[in-house]
Amino acid sequence: MAKVKVHVFLKNGVLDVQGKAVEGALKGLGWNVENARVGKLIEFDFDGADPAGEAKKMCETLLANTVIESYRIEVA
Amino acid sequence: MAKVKVHVFLKNGVLDVQGKAVEGALKGLGWNVENARVGKLIEFDFDGADPAGEAKKMCETLLANTVIESYRIEVA
User: Fold this and answer.
1) For B39-48, what is the mean pLDDT?
2) CATH code for A2-75?
3) How high is the pLDDT of residue A3?
4) Which end of chain B is more exposed for a tag (fewer CB within 10 A), N or C?
5) Residue B41: its pLDDT value, please?
6) Are B53 and B60 contacting, i.e. CB atoms less than 8 angstroms apart?
7) pLDDT at residue B68 in the model
8) Beta-carbon count within 10 A of A70 CB
9) What's phi and psi for B44, nearest 5 deg?
């Protein structure tokens, strides 16, 4: 059983409205924050061979919208 | 300028409907996946003293709903 973490985030150049909102709110509260980006972190236990390769397939088919999103996979 | 990563996730015991949906969908596609959880990963550059302490304050005031969510802070 492998612990898999998948980080899905908008590609550079795609406007991250959630990130902009967070940045604006933090600035409004007095913090000097730049380049805020909000992504998703999906964690699960995977039972099977080649967790990294299977996680890549999961991202391509379901977890990420590869038109606008990138992903990073960590297997522990 | 410190790079700060904040991982916000639902506390254990709080039903994670997004995680359940991901788990069900991956199972439906033939992957043997358990305990899927979906969280948020907020990344930003912070200019100021004590980034870890300030990030903790940001979480308490804005980034996390501490009634149902926990957070983990990484400063690089």
Assistant:
1) 96
2) 3.30.1280.10
3) 97
4) C
5) 97
6) no
7) 97
8) 15
9) -160, 165
Q: How far is B3 from chain A (nearest CA, A)?
A: 10
Residue A5 DSSP code:
E
Is the ipTM beyond the 0.95 threshold?
A: no
Residue B54 tokens read as 């300030």
Query: Residues for chain B: how many in total?
Result: 76
Match 């606008």 to its residue by tokens: A68
B46: chain A residues, CB-CB within 8 Å: 31-34
Q: Which helix (H) or strand (E) holds B54?
A: helix B51-58
Contact at CB, B39 and A36, closer than 8 angstroms: no
Q: What local confidence, expressed as pLDDT, does residue B52 receive?
A: 96
Q: Which chain B residues are Cβ-neighbours of A48 within 8 angstroms?
A: 31-32
- Asked if A41 and B44 come within 8 Å (Cβ–Cβ), the reply is no
pLDDT for the residue A44: 97
Give me the pLDDT at residue A24, please.
97
Cβ atoms of B44 and A33 closer than 8 Å = yes
Domain ranges of chain B: 2-75
